[in-house]
Amino acid sequence: MQEYVPHYRVPLFKRMVELAESEGIDLKVVAGTPQRKQATRRDAGRFHPHIQMRQTEFGLLGRRVTFRDAGWSTRGAALVIVEQARRNLDVYFDLLIRPSRVAVWGHGSDYIQSAGRLETWLLTTITNRAAWFFGYTPTSVNAVVAKGFPPQRTTVLWNTTDTSALRGNLNQVTESEKASFRGESTGMAVFVGALDKSKRLDFLVAAAARIAARRPGFRLTICGDGPESDQVRELERQYDWLQVRPAVTGRSLAVALSSADAIAMPGRVGLIAVDSLVSSVPIVTVDWAYHAPEYEYLDSTNSVSSANTVEDYADALENTIYHALSNERLRSGATASAELFTIEGMARRFMAGIRAALSGTR
């Protein structure tokens, strides 16, 4: 069950359905449509779920809360896999009535925000009552095991996007496309992601302004949509070195990555880490507490993590873009790190966990 299916999940779910069918498992994807702030991201995929879910979103004590209703369609399921999220009220009912049929998948812990005692307790309770946990990364699994979840009922997914499709698109990008994207810039950083508070866009633009003052040919291109789109567009009108484009996927993502000297992500780093490794374009980020689990895919051989100040970040980003030897070393490191991440591998790991969970719930 998903609140909605973002574009980067479509290949995973399609492949899982194929694998399940070949193994005699009836796997159904249940999903709704993006609500409110999620809708502003404009990242919903072209995917028709097997079951369309009704859902209602509302605010409660300053938090986003959702109630999903899939009708009777999931009542007879041997296993229902839900997101590891406190906001989905229906999950509490499922875990109360029949916890042995509920599995959760997700981050494992509160990586991307500070959580109070009650929030931490709720997340732990949701997870520990479940039949199985599918963690995005090894750190995700370690986090729930540390809170008492049985390690023998976990699966590490190695969360990824469709790297095969990305590689294909990267191979087709032409020099003229890159030249058009770069314009007259002598050094280019790109940001790719949702335009929201977690990405620290004000921090990014402040650092970029420092570089632009020292490097007249520098350009920052921000690719994305989200709640802060209007603010970012206003900044674009102020700075001639800043360009803002809509969210990029498929071929347009490949063009953006191929044209860049570095990926600038001073805020939350998640699946963009995979895009960085596959495209061999180094991420420059900061040492920060709120990265998503996929941040662990990065290290000093394939990325740069500066101190958490605008000045230090500007220096690190500038050096990565304009120091050719450093840039080439990081690109080589990214290429070497990318082989693990495929949709095929993630789908097969997911299905192996589903089989194990089913054998334990019968």
From TrEMBL:
InterPro entries reported in the protein's UniProt record: Glycosyltransferase_grp1
Tell me which UniProt keywords the record has, alphabetically.
Transferase
Entry-linked SUPFAM superfamilies: UDP-Glycosyltransferase/glycogen phosphorylase (SSF53756)
Recall the GO molecular function terms of this protein's record.
glycosyltransferase activity
Q: What is this protein called?
A: D-inositol 3-phosphate glycosyltransferase
